[in-house]
Amino acid sequence: MAAAVTAAAACAQQVQRTVSSKASSSLLAPVARPAAAFRPAAVAARRASALRVLAQATAAPAAAPAKADANKKSQYALQTLTTWLLDLEREGTIDNELATVISSIATACKQIGSLVNRAGISNLTGLAGETNVQGEDQKKLDVISNEVFSNCLRQCGRTGIIASEEEDQPVAVEETFSGEYVVVFDPLDGSSNIDAGISVGSIFGVYEPSPECRIEDMDDPEAMMQKCVLNVCQAGNELLCAGYTLYSSSTILVLTVGKGVYGFTLDPLIGEFVLSHPDIKIPEKGKIYSFNEGNYQSWSKEQQAYIDSLKDSSQWGGKPYSSRYIGSLVGDFHRTLLYGGIYGYPGDAKNPNGKLRLLYECAPMSMICEQAGGAGSTGFQRVLDIVPTKVHERQPLFVGSKWEVEYLESVLQNKPAPHEN
Ligand code: FDP
After folding, report:
1. Which of 141, 185, 189 has most ligand 1 atoms within 8 Å of CB, for mutation?
2. What atom in ligand 1 is closest to the CA of residue 192?
3. C-alpha of residue 192 to centroid of ligand 1, in Å
4. In a designed cystine with 347, which of 17, 142, 230, 396 is the match (CB 3.0 to 4.6 A)?
């Protein structure tokens, strides 16, 4: 711990204060309009009258009533992530600060998506030569994506603490000047697929602002780090926002702020995420399971029995479940969200808690799944109820259609299967 604290303290000391004064405006703050009040009243009146005459003279007799025209939607109307966030702000679902954090995450994802697309021709494939705190070899793109994500979050000035899969400890952000949201993320999940050009993704979660873990408290780095860890280790049910971006045949950002799930596809020609999947609902029951069956021998007998039963066509009207597994959580999860079924990474004899990390993999995916009408479970407990005891804690994860997840829980817990609707 002491070494980690020293490292984190050293790291924190290196952070340069790039924003010294409190900024008053934001990316999404309403822009003050040059008001008509500056126009002399007589000129304004003359202009209004001239416009009325012109409108009468040019109005086609068969024109639809003005009210109907105003309500007609233009065929060129787009709902972009930015206008969607503005709508949420207007209705009071999120505030301006959270909208700014989400915008900066979207910018990071656009940049990572472009790097992923060009990885093979920009010498970005292969290993970086380092291992992360979890002992995994870091790919070049893991390291770069982490830097891109961290830069965007710092520059937006609204994050107090960031915790990444690629960092040993949470990092207090010095550049923050308001907001102080806690952001957890895996900048490039599934990166072992990168060199083969297969889908990868970024996953993120945003928690309530926390002003407790401050860079100003550097005179006691150990106490500061304890506060940082404490503020990051929150249960998933405290998440304000969770999302992921899939880098695949298209770049798709899927997001929830606790009011349904929305998907935005990046239009590369205008550089904007455009709403393409409004109010996503996962099917109640599916026909696909997604597990790494190579681990079958080391699963519990209950876990084996569950997968055996999905393959037993006699139980499912003559057709067994189909198996699909990319080995990239974001890709496998996205398919499960749209088509239904179950994604699972169980514990096994060697790793009782499986492989996936609670904070920036299991919890955000579970929140998205629940918001879409599905479920997220460890097999014995709702994922969103677990309070992590450490930043990189692992948990078994089963997410997907409600029926398949409940059926899995019933098999693991030796309980009767849920009823089919
Ligand atoms: P990766 O190691 O390539 O980053 O948690 C990381 C993850 O990929 C997930 O994206 C993926 O679902 C899982 O590991 C794959 O693990 P297995 O190779 O053990 O199936």
Report:
1. 189
2. 3
3. 7
4. 396
Question: Do residues 162 and 170 lie in contact, with contact meaning Cβ atoms separated by under 8 Å?
Answer: yes
Instruction: Characterize 357-375 residue by residue with b for buried, 16 or more Cβ atoms within 10 angstroms of its Cβ, and e for exposed.
Output: bbbbbbbbbbbbbbbbebb
- CA-to-CA distance for 178 and 173, rounded, in angstroms? 11
CATH fit for domain 288-412, picks 3.40.50.740, 3.40.190.80, 3.40.50.720, 3.40.50.1820: 3.40.190.80
Q: Which atom of ligand 1 sits closest to the CA of residue 201?
A: 10
Fold agreement (81-277, 288-412): no
pLDDT 10s digits, 163-188: 999 888 888 787 666 778 999 999 99
Structural contact between residues 193 and 214, judged by C-beta atoms closer than 8 angstroms: no
From the alpha carbon of 330, which atom of ligand 1 is closest? 10
pTM of the model as a whole: 0.82
pLDDT class of 160 with cuts at 50, 70, 90: confident
Q: How many A from CA of 290 to the centre of ligand 1? A: 12
Cβ(265) – ligand 1 distance below 6 Å: no
Q: What angle is formed at CA 75 by the lines to CA 70 and CA 79, rounded to 5 degrees? A: 90
> What CATH topology corresponds to 81-277?
Fructose-1,6-Bisphosphatase; Chain A, domain 1 (3.30.540)
Report domain extents, the chain: 81-277, 288-412
Q: Is the CB of 191 under 6 A from ligand 1?
A: yes
- The CB of 329 under 6 Å from ligand 1? The reply is yes
Give me ligand 1 centre to Cα 223, in Å.
34
Ligand 1 atom closest to the CA of 356, numbered from 1: 5
Q: What would the two tokens of residue 303 be? A: 């876990």
pLDDT digits (tens, 9 = 90+) for 262-283: 999 999 999 999 999 999 999 9
